[in-house]
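Reopening this ticket.

The earlier resolution said the output was attached, but the attachment link was broken on my side. Pasting everything inline this time so it's all in one place.
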Amino acid sequence: MTGMPARDVLIEGTWNARVFGDEHPWLLRSATLDGLTDRGRTTLDRLGVRAVIDLREPGERRVPGHNLPTMPVPVFGRGGGGDPRVTMEVAYRLWLEAHGVAMVQAVRLIAQADGPVAVHCAIGKDRTGLVVALALLAAGYSRDVIVGDYAASASRQPSFLRRTTLERMAWEGIEAETPAGREYLRRSLDSPGEVISGALDYLEINGGWWAFLEARGLTETEMLALRAKAGLLPVAVPYEPLTAVMYPECQVAVAAA
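Inline output:
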């Protein structure tokens, strides 16, 4: 048994919003909720959202556009998002290794929450994409659903983001038609399915998703809670110890558990 794909939901004041659980929503993902209108807040209430997990850094946050309890989990921390010149594929592997503890903390909060939770970062693509992918893995969703959900974010981004990205590139002296410029735009706006597939492959090569999550704090009880929220039957935990692997392009080694 596997979970159904998320459905798009219109929430006035944000974008890139999708909810998992058709009759019984349990997880909402979106871009920032800072600009919610009264209608947007009504939609959150209708979905039953009881808490918000904010994956942004302190300097990114503004006054939230809602009155829900908010749990800040800054994914990047002081190190930031790393070198913007590397490819998305390399960046995601680096983020999983360097910031996996924070990502798994967010997954644990989803599991522990009393009711549906909203998870967001700035545009709901990278940090949110990785955290949601990890939560869906733990909840028993298929790889196809996870990849499809991640890839959907590219077409849900508003047009002003491309304009502001191009303005930022011009200020930084990066030409859009150069290889560096194209990768900059790709990292800023796109969500290729092959990127999240590569991240999932990275987990599998390094002992599997459960070993990754368990080593960073997720308990079997929390995993089963996620499956209960998603309405999926428990299955045996595919436990294998983590093993070390070196990626020549990013020099990342996963420590053995």
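Reporter confirms the inline version is readable. Residues 239-257 have pLDDT under 50 and may be disordered. Residues 207 and 242 are 4 Å apart (CA to CA).
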